[in-house]
Known about the structure:
The protein has one domain (about 20-205): 3-Layer(aba) Sandwich (Rossmann fold). The chain contains six helices and nine strands, in the order ααβαβαββαβββαββ. The chain has helices spanning about 20-35, 45-50, 70-75, 90-95, 130-140, 180-185, and strands at about 60, 80-85, 100-105, 115-120, 145-155, 160-165, 170-175, 190-200, 205-210.
Amino acid sequence: MDGLGRGGGLDPDRGPDRVSTIEVYQRVAEGYDRSRDQSLFEKPWLDRLLADVPPGGKVLDLGCGSGRPIGAYLAAQGYAVTGVDAAPAMLDLYARHVPEACVVLADMRDLALDARFDAIVGWGSFFHLDARDQRRTLPRIARHLAPGGRLLLTVGPSAGEAWGQVEGEAVYHASLAPEDYAALLAAAGAPVEAYVPEDPSCRGHSLLLARRPVADKGLAATDDA
Length: 225
């Protein structure tokens, strides 16, 4: 994803295929789990996400992968964690590494959980959707926020597309422009609190943090409109 907006490039003969991305993660799950950086460099941003989550609060780990280190960190803080992923092999690993979590096999594009969450994190996952799916899916995700709940996503530094690699296999990435994310989230009732492109303190990741106002009753989490 680091190449987005900086010449990462999308092969014009290859279109984004969400199914193939899921299949890649299904195939490489064990290797990904072994090679995933466990230093928890994400912690400062995770702590911002969790700053106002009450003890035992509900946290959604969206596109959760194998559960290490992020899911394990969330659970270690005493939160009620739900991990959602579309790759069954990843969910099996998540259940192994974060046994106290609830795991749900689902594509985030179809997210419709009967719950509201005090925090939602989509680290290294949401940006695998193409621009059209991001526009459709972001309001759906925001509807799952409880009043006062925050959403943290890794995105790109600017609008663009790129191919990256996971365990030697090609995977698609995309990002909208920051102002497009801001407009979508404002319309969904969860305005952007912070956006840092290529954060040098977070290994160059671009981070977006949004929050639903405390007094906002919002829409039903399962509303598909």
